[in-house]
Specification:
Blueprint (H helix, E strand, L loop, with lengths): L7 H4 L6 H19 L7 H26 L5
Helix pairs in contact: 2-3
C-alpha cells in the first residue's frame, strides 16, 4: 500500500524498524505487567523494581518518539 492509497489511520503512521518495533513491544509488555500486578500484595522492594521498570519504559518510549518525530523540546 502506498502513502497515497493509505487509509486515514495509516496515512500519518510512521514505519518502525524491527529494533524499534521490538523496543515498543517491550515497553508495552512492561506496562501490561504493571497493570496486572497486585500492588496490595507486593513487597516494598518489588514496588521499587516495578517503578524503575516503568521509568525505563517511559524513557525508552520518549526516545523512540524523538527518533521518529525529531526532538520535541529544544
Amino acid at each position: 500500500m502506498t502513502e497515497a492509497s493509505a487509509g486515514p489511520a495509516e496515512a500519518g503512521r510512521a514505519h518502525l524498524t524491527p529494533p524499534q518495533a521490538a523496543r515498543l513491544a517491550m515497553d508495552r509488555l512492561d506496562l501490561a505487567r504493571a497493570r496486572s500486578a497486585d500492588l496490595a500484595a507486593m513487597e516494598q522492594a518489588e514496588m521499587v523494581v516495578l517503578v524503575e521498570r516503568l521509568r525505563g519504559a517511559l524513557y525508552d518510549a520518549l526516545r523512540l518518539v524523538e527518533e521518529l518525530a525529531g526532538p520535541t523540546i529544544p
